[in-house]
Amino acid sequence: ERGELPDEVKAASAETFHRIAVCEADIHGTTVEKIHFHEVGAIDSIVDVVAAHFALHLLGVDRVVASPVNTGSGTVQCAHGLMPIPAPATARLLEGVPSYGSDCPYELTTPTGAALIAQIADAFGPMPLMAVETVGYGSGTRDLADRPNVLRGIIGAETQTAPGEPITVIETNLDDLLPELMPPLLEAILKAGAREAFLTPLYGKKGRPAFLVTALCDEEKVAAVTTAFFEHSSTLGLRMRTETRICLAREWETVATPWGEVRVKAGYWDGKLRSRAPEFEDCRKTAE
Length: 288
What we know:
Layout: H1 7-28, H2 43-59, E1 65-66, E2 69-72, E3 75-78, E4 81-84, H3 88-93, E5 99-101, H4 111-120, E6 123-124, E7 130-139, E8 150-158, E9 165-174, H5 182-191, E10 196-203, E11 209-217, H6 222-232, E12 239-245, E13 249-257, E14 260-269, E15 272-278, H7 280-287
Parallel strand pairs: 1-6, 2-5
Antiparallel strand pairs: 3-4, 7-8, 9-11, 9-12, 10-11, 13-14, 14-15
Helix pairs in contact: 1-2, 1-4, 5-6
């Protein structure tokens, strides 16, 4: 608060530590007021947090897209003893953030890093289509045998050309599954990580009424979605292909109404608002 920094940098830094405090309080079953920072209270962690926000301010970055977060594997020595990776605080701070473990036997994401990326990233996924202006690297002190221990930042301007992203299409025809079991099948596919799942009525061989079950998912979710198909349906096989899709950039807004708050999904193209629609489940809950 007393530092000679822009107010927005102070506010963003304070929010990062508030996120960590809320996380620690939840893990320890206490309140934010009673939390004692351990590793994240050290001066280097304070510098990490403030410098990250100050860097974004100086660079003029107005949107951040991050790759899914690699947490590593194994164990790490914390103030409370030996903990599995991701550490409890890291796992809690990454709620809602696409993340995964790997065969690298080290802690690749710390609580400080998790708090920062969860706060500053507007989206997670592949690098968006953009004209690259500059690239920077931050190097860690540990030498890893199979990969460079660096964090890379790429700055650029989004282009106006329609960006395409890969999507995996998984589908099968079902003519021997009870119709009552179709909705649970779709629910299981979505729970496994599919972006979309839907049914198309059709006629199969010998004129049998059937359904085409289709799921859209990212490549890293293919295994889980495939398992959901086999566990919750009678199919003996699946068809799979990779297609390219173009989507509006989506953001969530919250609108206050006389009956409560309702989430609204806004879609942007070329930086302009093209679509806005209230979330159906919020409307249904409010109506009920």
